[in-house]
Fold:
Amino acid sequence: MIRFTFPGYENIARQLQATFFMQVGRFAAGRFANQELYAHIEDKVQGEHCLILGTIAPPDESLLSFLLLAETLKKERADKITAILPYLAYSRQDKDKPGESLGTAWVGALLNSSGISQVITVDVHSARDQQLFPVPLISLPTDRLFADAIRKHGLADATIVAPDNGAIGRCEAVKRAAGMPIGETPYFEKKRIEQGIIHSGPIGKVGAKAVIIDDMIDTGGTLVSACEKLAAAGVLDIYIMITHGLFTGSSWTQLWSLGVKRIFCTDTVPLRSGIDATNITQLSAAPLIAEGITSVAGQVAAAHGSAH
Structure:
C-alpha cells in the first residue's frame, strides 16, 4: 500500500505508520500561475493499492485537490484507491428536500468518478449517507474511544445524555462499551425554527454530573441549548464528547458559562487555529482508522487471492 497524506493529517499519518508499514507517497498539489489546480505524483503506482488521507471540507480547494489527486492515481493505473476521510464533509446534506442540493450524493458521485472505490470515515452523520454513496462507505464508531475517556477521567458515575433522540443509539453504544448500566437514556426533543434550535427536556432523570454525547460540534447551537436546559434542571458539571470538532464561529464558547467543564473531541478535524483549547481534550482516531485500513487491506488481499 502507498499512502498519500494532505496537510493537517500528519499526526494521524505518523500513528498509522507506527501501527503498520506503508510506503509514503510523494506528491504535490497546488496551483499554476493562472490559478488552475494541479496534482503531481512522484511514485510509480501502477498495480498498487493507494490510500489518500485528508479532507474534503471547506475551503473548496480541499475537495478539488483531493479529487484531482485521486484522478491522477487512477490515470497512472493504481489498482485500487481508498479515500480516508476522518470527517466526511457534506454528510449533513442527506435529506432530499425540494429545491435543495443533495450534497452527500453529489460528493459520493464525484469521489466515485475520480477512481475512488471505497471511503473510510469516522462516525458518519447518518445511515442515510451510506445509502446515498455509490461506493462502500465504511463508518468507524467511536464508542470504545469515548468509553476509554469516561473510565480514564472518572466519569462512570455521570448521566449519559443525548442532545436529541437521534443520538440515543450512539449514547447507548458508549454506555455498553464503558460497562455502564444501560437503562433509559435522557434526551431532548429538538425542533428547528427560523431563529435557531428549541429544546424541550431533558426527558428522563439526570444527576448532578452529565456527559452529552453527539457526532459533532459546529456552531454549537444544539449543545448550548441543551446545556442551558441541563443547568436550569440543576446539573452542576457537564462534559461533552463529540467526534468532529469544527468549532465554527464563537457561539459555542457560551458552553463554558453553562457548567461545561471539558469538551472531548477526536482529531478527525484539525483544531481551528486561534481557539482556546485549554479545556478541550483531543482523542486520537488513528487506532480506529488503522482497524479500517486492516479490514480493507484484507479484502483486497482476498480478492487478489481468488483472482489467482
The radius of gyration is 21 Å. The chain has two domains: 2-141+287-307, 143-284. The chain is about 30% helix and 25% strand.
